[in-house]
Specification:
Elements lengths: L1 H20 L12 H7 L8 E4 L3 E7 L5 E7 L6 H12 L10 E7 L2 E7 L6 H6 L7 H21 L4 E2 L8 E3 L5 E3 L6 E2 L5 E2 L24 E6 L2 E7 L5
Antiparallel strand pairs: 1-2, 2-3, 3-5, 4-5, 6-9, 7-8, 10-11, 11-12
Amino acid sequence: MVSVTIFVLRRKRNVEVATEATSLPQLLWRRVSHLELLRATNGFNENNLLGSGGFGSVYKGTFSDGIDVAVKVFNLQLEGAFRSFEKECEMLSNIRHRNLIKIISCCSELDFKALVLNYMPNGSLEKWLYSQDYSLNILQRMNIMIDVAAAVEYLHHGYSVPTVHCDLKPSNILLDDDMVAHVADFGIAKLLGGGDSMTQTMTLATVGVWTGRNGFNKRGCVQFWNCSDGNIHKKKANRCDV
């Protein structure tokens, strides 16, 4: 009876999300300039800073038509930042899944690179797991796990090129208005061609250490994979405390 109830709730939630996805703003794929992003973020003001990562920072921005966005600005002084920008552009412009973060536009100038992404009002899963001010009920936790699993399954088996995210962790799982989870940050993702073969992803991914009942003390997950002929098989993965 409990499983049936959860299934019904899940089905209802999926319908609501699908309706929302079909009403994306007209801003989608509109080209934006550096000046527009400066205005939208109030000069990349620290008050608009949502977070920082290995290759740059993410700011909340609001365009003149009132649409809120997330602006990921790459620090081109860092080695690998330009490649990360290109990788995310390639990935996000081609993937189509409701549980993967959507790209709205990008700004690519000689000395400035940025992605414009859907803004996620409820922030990252990390905030909800490790803050005293936020909490998740059991149904929300189950739905988030299902969302993330659906995104990973799509990357491995539904996308045209099998893909390993390589840095899946709570800070890279973002939550929208309805607490639907979206996997983000594909800067070090690994695309596997037909002849690729690897036994372990050697990346800059955050390393998580399992400490027992309290979960990871570094808030991250380690993923190990066996990959042959484009097929991905999970060898070992420590699961975050969702």
